[in-house]
Design a protein that fits this description.
Layout: E1 3-13, H1 17-29, E2 35-48, E3 51-65
Antiparallel strand pairs: 1-3, 2-3
Protein backbone atom coordinates (compact mmCIF):
# COMPACT_ATOMS: atom_id res chain seq x y z
CA UNK A 1 0.00 0.00 0.00
CA UNK A 2 1.36 3.41 -0.97
CA UNK A 3 1.22 6.33 1.42
CA UNK A 4 0.93 9.75 -0.20
CA UNK A 5 1.50 13.17 1.29
CA UNK A 6 0.50 16.62 0.01
CA UNK A 7 2.38 19.90 0.37
CA UNK A 8 1.10 23.27 -0.75
CA UNK A 9 3.36 25.56 -2.79
CA UNK A 10 2.84 29.15 -3.87
CA UNK A 11 4.72 30.31 -6.98
CA UNK A 12 4.67 33.17 -9.44
CA UNK A 13 5.85 34.06 -12.92
CA UNK A 14 5.86 37.12 -15.12
CA UNK A 15 5.09 34.89 -18.15
CA UNK A 16 2.08 32.64 -17.42
CA UNK A 17 0.24 30.42 -14.95
CA UNK A 18 1.79 27.40 -16.69
CA UNK A 19 5.27 28.79 -16.10
CA UNK A 20 4.45 29.46 -12.44
CA UNK A 21 3.23 25.86 -12.10
CA UNK A 22 6.42 24.52 -13.67
CA UNK A 23 8.47 26.64 -11.26
CA UNK A 24 6.51 25.28 -8.29
CA UNK A 25 7.07 21.66 -9.31
CA UNK A 26 10.75 22.23 -10.11
CA UNK A 27 11.42 23.95 -6.79
CA UNK A 28 9.52 21.29 -4.83
CA UNK A 29 11.49 18.53 -6.57
CA UNK A 30 14.72 19.95 -5.14
CA UNK A 31 13.74 18.74 -1.67
CA UNK A 32 10.78 16.38 -2.22
CA UNK A 33 11.28 13.03 -3.93
CA UNK A 34 8.72 10.74 -5.59
CA UNK A 35 6.40 13.52 -6.77
CA UNK A 36 3.35 11.91 -8.37
CA UNK A 37 1.10 14.85 -9.29
CA UNK A 38 0.44 18.55 -9.00
CA UNK A 39 -3.00 20.12 -8.63
CA UNK A 40 -3.45 23.83 -9.29
CA UNK A 41 -5.71 24.85 -6.43
CA UNK A 42 -6.06 28.49 -7.44
CA UNK A 43 -4.78 31.11 -9.85
CA UNK A 44 -4.48 34.86 -9.42
CA UNK A 45 -2.63 37.82 -10.87
CA UNK A 46 -1.12 41.04 -9.61
CA UNK A 47 -1.88 44.21 -11.53
CA UNK A 48 0.43 47.15 -12.11
CA UNK A 49 -0.36 50.26 -14.15
CA UNK A 50 -3.55 48.70 -15.52
CA UNK A 51 -1.92 45.49 -16.75
CA UNK A 52 -1.11 42.03 -15.45
CA UNK A 53 2.36 42.03 -13.94
CA UNK A 54 2.56 38.62 -12.22
CA UNK A 55 0.74 35.29 -12.56
CA UNK A 56 0.37 33.39 -9.27
CA UNK A 57 -0.58 29.79 -8.55
CA UNK A 58 -1.33 27.83 -5.43
CA UNK A 59 -0.27 24.24 -6.20
CA UNK A 60 -0.81 21.07 -4.20
CA UNK A 61 2.09 18.67 -4.78
CA UNK A 62 1.42 14.99 -4.05
CA UNK A 63 4.30 12.63 -3.39
CA UNK A 64 4.80 9.08 -2.22
CA UNK A 65 6.32 8.57 1.23
CA UNK A 66 9.08 5.96 1.42
Amino acid sequence: MAVLKVVEILADSDKSWEDATRKAVKKASESVKNIKSAFVNSQSVTVKDGGVSTFRVNVKITFEVD
